Request: fold
Amino acid sequence: MKAKLCLLSVFLYIIKTLNCLGSGIAPDEVQFRDAVFSDDIRTVMFYVDGDVQSAPVLELNSDARLLLKFDDLSGNVKSYSYSIIHCDFNWRESRLLSSEYLDGFQENPLNDYVSSINTTFSYINYQLAIPNDDVQLKLSGNYILVVFETDNRDKIVLSRRFQVVEPMVVVDGTVKRASFDPFKGGNQEVDFTIRHPNLRIQNPREEVKVVVMQNRRWDNAITNLKPLFIRQNELSYDYSKENVFQGGNEFRYFDIRTRRYNGENVGRIEFFRPYYHVTLLPDEVRSNKAYRSYGEMNGNYVVESQDRIKDTDTECDYFFVHFTLPLEAPLAGGKVYVFGALSNWQVGKSSEMTWNFEHSAYELSLLLKQGYYNFEYVYMPNGSAKLDDSNLEGSFWETENDYRIFVYYRDVAGTYDRLVGYSILNSRKQK
Reply:
């Protein structure tokens, strides 16, 4: 327990430092989040084993496992360990003892690693499956996975959120063009119903909490909805304003699965010893263009290669990828970022674009592993914590989006927030 408190205190300090500097966020509002704390750590992927496009959500007591993968570009094998922490609905540490939600040890070594082969960048690929022989999950709810250096617990390298659901309720719903949208007509409305014949809920407005996420974004998630109508064994969330998201636009994409020829939206591939550089085709602002439908991955990416290799985890190389967004003039009063899973669904110095006065364009270089990527350009006004992806991308109600709905339950005698329902609604593929 002492080790747990030490780890948490360091983790909270780092989170506070990164989240609060210049953001106006009070310390008591700090939450556990997806984050990478070392420049050497790249390509962090966390999904249900067997489905690389899935979110890290497990069903309690199922045979499924979550798989964490990441690369350490320091080139040296390091001894890493991990810890799993149970959280409440708001992603703050729950008051449970680790023995109440884990079978096994609170801290365990991360022993599965392999060195890269025939790559210009040398790296170590680490993998972790959860649950495993060392630790199993006993309760539903929110969890945070923390990876740190074994010999230096103060050095936390990454954290990832995941959820465990015990399916006690059924969530049905639809996504449609917003009923109340007096402005540009680019919003989507998420209406849903929670059916709970197998779960007795006495005070739904207090005992039930829901989270609605658009794709994988936590920054615009809706967390404060109360049931609009309460019927026998049924809670209805059929709002017209409170459950509305900007539809956004289909994500941009590029293909860097090979260095032998230019993939989609790649302008050129060059080798400047000792590394490869990929220059993407210059992009255009899409807010003033008509909507165009095409298939994409809702902001995600996959690590793949079209070269003759056997193991994508250890044989895919890293490239410097150069983005260019020409504009007549820089956007005043804010910053422009490249955004998506390639930026951990967050904005920061590593994904911030710089203005090139000579070329009249925003530019950014990212070090990325071979694969197929989605992304978009977002604008953040100075002093604001809210991203604006419509300024550069536009917003259309026709856009295809996934909406993930999480249902939490805690009665008056409960000691933690149980995750009792989970559903994915798609704006195009209605039930």
Q: What stands out?
A: Residues 2-20 form the longest helix (19 residues).
